[in-house]
Write a structure and sequence with these properties.
By secondary structure, this protein is α+β, with helices and mostly antiparallel strands. Strands 1-2-6-5-4-3 form a six-stranded antiparallel β-sheet. It has helices spanning 26-30, 71-81, 88-96, 100-108, 119-128, 134-148, 166-170, 174-178, 186-198, 211-218, 226-236, 247-258, 264-275, 279-293, and strands at residues 8-12, 15-19, 38-40, 46-50, 53-60, 63-67, 151-155, 158-161. The radius of gyration is 19 Å and the shape is globular. Among the domains are: 3-85, 2-Layer Sandwich (TATA-Binding Protein); 119-235, Hypothetical protein, domain 2 (Endonuclease III, domain 1, Orthogonal Bundle), CATH 1.10.340. The structure holds a DNA duplex (13 and 12 nucleotides).
DNA sequence: CCCCAGGCAGTTA
DNA sequence: TAACTGCCTGGG
């Protein structure tokens, strides 16, 4: 039995409602750069797609309301997706004791959780993320889904589609993929799909590998370098000790710790030494902190 | 118009 | 293996 089972859960009318759910802020979770398919609604809730489901999430005081879901899917899919059985209070307490910088970052993004997302969608999403901006990454992922994914249903008057699987993408032309505004990354996306199909790669099984073997497998894909591979490790493979060093992590680390231009490898080493098994969490708090406050820019 | 955005591959030295 | 360079796209 996980921690979430100790809480009061109400299941009614296609909603699952949890009172007293700690360390959970939709804005922090969905806008900390880890996911691209969650969008803010007019009422402050977020609607997104994962694991062939459409879900809406809202927080009201200490209550979190999951809409468009039944209790079976909640237990089988979303508890894992939102990492609800993980004690973020403990993680934050441990990390915050290490120095004032990470302590401030944690206070700022106190409701962040690392989502356990689908490996294939995350692999392609982060190939698209290279030298790109979040709103445009979201637009490309959305277009790929709408044009080539399977129809899932309607919610609040909008149609939703899943992310096309590797086989579906492998059958597309480079031009079809380019039509989703992915630019020069189209050949990497098609190449990745063909590699997965031709080499019979089961990305879910990479979760069973250790971090290093998992990384070495991912970096064989054209379009996946060190940063993207580490993002896939943290956001889909459960390898939370990994440390993606992007431009914001580089900025915030140089601003607070190095005070000079520093190679990404050195930043990664420093972070892993400082934050250990919690490096991926620390990275996410620091990223959100830096990007929202434009630290180091 | 220029600049840059959660990097990468390819080329050089 | 480190240092460079060009890259689709589109919003500021």
């Amino acid at each position: 039995m996980g921690a979430v089972n100790a809480l009061e859960i109400i299941d009614k009318n296609g909603k699952v409602i949890i009172r007293g759910l700690r360390d959970f802020e939709p804005k922090h979770i969905f806008e900390c750069g880890q996911c691209f398919r969650w969008n803010l609604e007019d009422d402050g809730s977020y609607t997104g797609v994962a694991y062939d489901r459409v879900l809406n999430v809202r927080k009201d005081g200490d209550t979190v309301i999951f809409d468009n879901v039944n209790i079976e899917d909640f237990n089988n899919i979303w508890v894992g997706y939102f990492d609800l059985n993980n004690d973020y209070g403990k993680i934050k307490h441990d990390l915050a004791g290490r120095d004032e910088v990470i302590k401030d970052a944690i206070n700022f993004g106190h409701g962040i959780r690392i989502l356990r997302q689908e490996p294939w969608e995350i692999l392609i999403s982060f190939i698209i993320s290279a030298n790109n901006a979040i709103p445009r990454i979201k637009k490309s992922v959305e277009r790929l889904s709408k044009n080539f994914g399977q129809y899932l249903g309607r919610y609040r008057g909008k149609d939703f589609y899943n992310f096309p699987n590797a086989e579906e993408i492998s059958r597309l032309s480079e031009e079809q993929i380019e039509s989703c505004s992915v630019g020069f990354r189209a050949k990497y996306i098609l190449g990745a799909a063909r590699k997965v199909i031709d080499e019979n790669i089961f990305l879910e099984q990479l979760r069973e590998l250790n971090s290093e073997d998992c990384y070495n497998t991912l970096i064989e894909f054209k379009g996946i370098g060190p940063k993207v591979a580490n993002c896939i490790l943290v956001f889909a493979m459960g390898k939370i000790e990994a440390c993606p060093v992007d431009i914001w992590i580089k900025r915030v680390m140089e601003h607070f710790y190095f005070h000079e231009d520093t190679p990404n490898k050195k930043i990664e080493q420093f972070a892993r030494q400082k934050f250990g098994q919690y490096t991926g969490y620390a990275q996410q708090y620091l990223f959100y902190y830096a990007r929202e406050l434009k630290i180091g820019k």
